[in-house]
Write a structure and sequence with these properties.
Elements: E1 4-12, E2 16-21, E3 24-29, H1 32-37, E4 44-54, E5 57-63, H2 66-76, H3 83-104, H4 107-111, H5 118-128, H6 132-146, H7 172-185, H8 190-203, H9 209-220
Parallel strand pairs: 3-5
Antiparallel strand pairs: 1-2, 1-4, 2-3, 4-5
Helix pairs in contact: 2-3, 2-6, 3-6, 3-8, 6-7, 7-8, 7-9, 8-9
């Protein structure tokens, strides 16, 4: 199994790239979002990969983060969802957007991806809703372990730049995970807590953990 590729970007197509790894070229299929985030040709690039094996076909799919790769794996497990549909969803929403949409049961957000109809979007939300809390927590763990935000994973540093990097800001994924953990400790069901945290994070994208918990509790409070 090929789990990660690091090399030089040799070629960029409409839905794939060619990465040279010590003289061997690997063809890797990516979402539109991932393609747009890659560096210029000839520069260093690294992608996590998933290998699709069929009787007459071997295809590599690339992702800038392990979180996105995990969502690809889960999406591919839904009946009627192939690699192309999974990449379309991830390209439209991004991994955190997929987490929020599924936690909130937002069928319309999933349906916005090219080629995804209402019935398919509803099936995705229903089958993966219970997975969202775990994936949201996984995103925070990965961000903390790697010490970087998702958008910075494959960024190539400028060797001639002498400017100081900006102080690291707490990852939104980390704040969401901590809020999710707090609500779970208060006795809320994982899917219920994930939905409230996702909605709070949508309303307040830059909120830190205490503000997210407060906003989520307000959403979970009995109405009337």
């Amino acid at each position: 199994m090929i789990g990660k590729i690091s090399g030089r970007l040799e070629y960029r197509g409409e839905d794939h790239v060619l990465i040279d790894v010590r003289g061997v070229g690997y063809l890797v299929y990516c979402s539109d979002r991932t393609l747009a985030s890659l560096p210029r040709m000839g520069e260093a690039v690294a992608l996590y990969t998933d290998l699709l094996v069929r009787e007459d076909l071997l295809q590599l799919f690339g992702f800038p983060t392990l979180l996105e790769k995990e969502w690809h794996r889960l999406l591919m497990g839904v009946q009627g969802i192939g690699a192309k549909a999974s990449l379309a969803i991830l390209g439209t929403l991004g991994p955190e957007g997929v987490s929020r949409a599924i936690a909130l049961g937002d069928v319309n957000a999933v349906k916005a991806a090219k080629g995804i109809g209402p019935k398919t979007a509803q099936r995705i939300v229903l089958e993966l809703k219970d997975k969202a809390p775990g994936i949201m927590a996984m995103g925070a763990t990965l961000s903390a372990a790697m010490g970087t935000d998702e958008a910075e994973v494959i960024e190539v540093p400028d060797p001639v730049s002498k400017s100081k990097p900006a102080p690291a800001r707490p990852s939104s994924a980390t704040a969401q995970s901590e809020a999710l953990s707090a609500l779970s400790n208060l006795g809320y069901a994982p899917s219920e807590a994930a939905g409230a945290v996702a909605q709070a994070a949508t309303d307040q994208p830059d909120a830190e953990t205490p503000a997210l918990i407060h906003a989520a509790l307000k959403l979970l409070a009995p109405k009337g």
